[in-house]
Amino acid sequence: MNKTDYDLIVIGGGPAGLAAAIGAYDAGEKNILILERDTRLGGILNQCIHNGFGLHTFQEELTGPEYAQRFADLVLERGIECRLDTMVVSVGTDAEGIKEVAAVNETDGLLRLRTRALILAMGCRERSRGALNIPGFRPAGIFSAGTAQRLVNIEGYLPGRRVVILGSGDIGLIMARRMTLEGAKVLVCAELMPYSGGLKRNIVQCLDDFGIPLRLSHTVVRIEGKERVEGVVLAKVGSDRKPIPGTEEHYECDTLLLSVGLLPENELTVGLGAEMSRVTGGPVVNESLETSVPGVFAAGNVLHVHDLVDYVSEEAKLAGESAAAYVRECREAEQAGTEKSRDRIPVGFSGGIRYTVPSSVDPGRVRHWIKFRFRVGEVMTNRRVVLSIDGESVLSRKRRVMAPGEMEELVLTKKVLDAHPDMKSLEIRIEEDN
Amino acid sequence: MYDVVIIGAGVTGCAIARFLSAYRGSFCVLERSEDVCTGTSKANSAIIHAGFDAAHGSLMAKYNLLGNRMYPELAKELDFEYKNNGSLVLALHEEDIHKLEELMENGRKNGVEGLEIVGRERLKELEPAVGHVPVAALYAPTAGIICPFGATIAFAENACTNGVEFRFDTEVKGLGPAQDENGESCWVVQTAQGVIRTRTVVNAAGVYSDVLHNMVSADKIHITPRRGDYLLLDRKTGGYVKHTVFQVPGKFGKGVLVSPTVHGNTIIGPTAEDIDDKEGVETTAEGFDDLMEKAGFAFDDLPLREVITSFAGLRAHEDRHDFILGEVKDAPGFFDCAGIESPGLTAAPAIGKEIAGQLAEKLGLKENPDFVGTRKGFPDVKSLPPDEIAALVKEKPDYGRIVCRCEQVSEGAIIDAIRRPLGARSLDGVKRRVRAGMGRCQGGFCSPRIMDILAREWGVDPADITKAGGHSSVIVGLVKDRV
Description:
heterodimer, A: alpha/beta, FAD/NAD(P)-binding domain, 3 domains, 9 helices, B: FAD/NAD(P)-binding domain, D-Amino Acid Oxidase, Chain A, domain 2, Arc Repressor Mutant, subunit A, 30% helix, globular
């Protein structure tokens, strides 16, 4: 008979899920289960065979699979239970706040599991052609960049020989280089926005170094070919992002790769009734990365899309520690018969910030510091990021350049928080730096 | 020598084949593409019309009504998805209400039951999401929605199980009357795969039905491919709209329909543009804009940011705007099912039964004593209660291995889709049977795995796996193969 009751279940065995499980374990909670839908741990990192991972975490350059393996090893060393090839089909909470998880796999059939705490680490998916309303035929040869990456890096297949890339997200940029190295000709990378959606280092290393032109403010207006892609028409877009007639350029190609955004995969989260953010597509969380459903935490790309896996690992560790603290509190509350009170101060933002994670703070639950992560809506130069508590600026950091493609962070220490014991409001804003 | 050759494995051809298989004889369906349901039948509104719209006295009206009444029972017998959700035709303006009355009158003459004109208050009760514009509606409780792939595949599978042969990648290049060795008249069909002889021919070739007809008859017909763009919204929009909601043609133009699908998505469409290209299933930016604008007349806050895919289909519009059915006068033994546009999907089983009956009479066919009129569909993990999932996976473990995460389609279901009679050979073939790749990521995660399963099951190289047959290969080779 399979074990069915856990203190913590982590949904997803990618970088977020692994780091979260380790974080919870090291914080003292050992009754943990990781559920992973793929046949191995590591998630999407397994297909990211390029290097550049781990500079922050390990101070060395690792490939995706190497980075994932380090965390998988830490999970295995701790003897944390994992079920692979297992797909969670539904999640709910019972009247006592216990979370019920239903999952299926080949060997156990339907698993019905119960847990005190739950960490959501399901990652994200790529926005597809359909979601972009790109008109034209629907031939073979249109891939999201990540699908092409899997075909090339895991299966060893070449998805196409003459390639146009739409979108300058990081996966698209990485695939421009990869496809070139594997023998394809990448003709152009088109980006709808007037700035790239990817990291600067990827533009340089994946496009510039290979002579692949980046066409900003361009989009695909037509896909040709009834069976397989035969051509793509690009056009320049105006400030309204609508194509400008007369600017069409035809590219003869057999493949169109799309790297047009990642969408947090939150169908289970919505099913739980958690409050969602329309900006990130992820759940709204507090300083402990806890969603609006008590005991349900989120980390990694399911929460908001990250640029660097190092930050995912760091964020997920906090989610794990928070989940462990929650489990402890549940036990204590059961013994004492009282619950620890909660505070919720919303994090305000202005000056071009699109969102912050976390979006609310309970000062009493901050252990050492809070790391606010956020993105801006447009490219900005010579600014200051200012954090104020009750209208008083307590933190100010200079930023030479900020871009939508690069996530920003701001660390607020507990020391500063403690100096404002009756804090009522907290705001992060961007100001001109004169 | 076949008794009957049916040209075209769309819903009409497959429905004819299914009803024909209740008789004893040798029957063959010829299809130019690699699978059933690859033309008009796969790209339409997926609705079962009540039958108030077709002109009274037309064949469209007659077979619409008959088909509408056949679907509930057929959906049970052949285990495909059908739902009787009812339809509403909205009047967007006071001055359009008389058009609802005309429609209702026409519908009553056609024999449609339960028609009712409802005012705004009752309309809001029936369809709470309806926007501020509509003033009244014609309510037709007998309308429904189906899975058009599911229905077509069910007809085809059942026909196949009952002995009808299907030949794919077999385009008809020419045909004409001939005589057999006994001097009896027959037909010779030239195909991409050689010459086929048959006693009778059924023309169910969709947008190409005029081409076939005109090969054999002096009484020419003309089909215009009428293109319609559609938008499909994420399943998370399920429940937003309950009925199939049309708009009465009025000062805003012809209007578009907004309808739930049997799978819980929301569909918006179609546009209507007459084109020359019988393969012109190209969507357009203007079409999308048009749909979004018109759908906005019916609903104020349609969740249009939830579009997961768009597509276009072609209606086989004949100049006289009616079905052309039955044996062609100057071509004995050649049976037309031409001009099958809306309500063609609704009419298909009634047409199938009628034409099968005409063929049986012409050829003097006896009943098939071994005919099995039922068929079992594919188990869908997503829609099963927990106990049934557990039982299913216990019996067939690979049903516990989810390959398509968005639609929760298991490896077991995909293997079934491939191994069944007339099994899937392409990614789209799998998608139409079990919905793998039909969800919000549009195959982003599962298509490489499905490609491998297809290659393994068919014993071919993955490079031979196509999206939809022909030259639609998914991959072009191996990495560094030309470096």
